[in-house]
Amino acid sequence: MRYSGSRQNNAWHNNRLTLKQACRSGIRAGYSGQGLVSAGFIVLLALFFFFWPVAVARPSYRLQAINQFNLVADSGGVRVVTCQYCHLSPNGGASWNAFGDRVRSSFKGSIGEALYQALVAMEDSDGDGYADILEVFAGTLPGDPNSRPLVTAQFLMKSLEKAGGVDIYKPK
Ligand SMILES: [Ca+2]
């Protein structure tokens, strides 16, 4: 009995050891998992700060255009006016569409003034038959020939003049 009792004790002891070892290896696994999470977080943080100037600096231009052109602001996480209003890429940056190039060539330090001067020029940047200012007034894209108003340019011009003309797009 003693012997078998001792064997039982040994078995219990062995089981305990196994349990302890399992716990230790689990703890070790937990630590290495945490290490990976921390490393991943640091990499993400580094990437954020690396791309921050691209991701954050220019949206102020987009928001200025939305405000100044009386466009519809973002709603429900959907960008109603994307960077492609002026840029070719949905993420902004170089390069620009025809209207974006016009705004750039009008830029002398103030984005608000550059947007205004681009409209004062009364040019049709994308060549779709509608001056940029009429497209801004109608809510279509002045840099995309596939986006154009459904009414005539003459009708839009009369409506714009009634609304106050080009002055309604002065920098705010
Ligand atoms: Ca257009």
Structure, described:
The protein has 172 residues and is mostly helical. It has two domains: 11-55, no CATH class; 57-169, no CATH class. The protein is built from six helices and no strands. Helix 2 (59-68) crosses helix 4 (111-120) and helix 3 crosses helix 4 (111-120). The radius of gyration is 32 Å and the shape is elongated.
What is the H-and-E element order? HHHHHH
Q: Which ions and ligands are bound to the chains?
A: calcium ion
Question: How is the quaternary structure best described?
Answer: single chain
Work out the count of structural domains.
Answer: 2
- What is the beta-strand fraction? under 5%
Helix content: 55-70%
Mean pLDDT: 80
Largest sheet: none
The stretches of 5 or more residues where confidence is low (pLDDT under 50) are: 1-6, 11-15, 25-31, 52-57
Overall body shape: elongated
Distance between the terminal alpha carbons, to the nearest Å?
Answer: 96 Å
Helix vs. strand class: mainly alpha
Number of helical segments with 4 or more residues: 6
Radius of gyration: 32 Å
What's the number of extended β-strand segments?
A: 0
What does this entry show, briefly?
By secondary structure, the protein is mainly α. It contains 6 helices and no strands.
Reconstruct the topology from this structure.
Layout: H1 2-57, H2 59-68, H3 98-106, H4 111-120, H5 132-138, H6 153-163
The chain binds calcium ion.
The site of calcium ion has 10 residues, from loops.
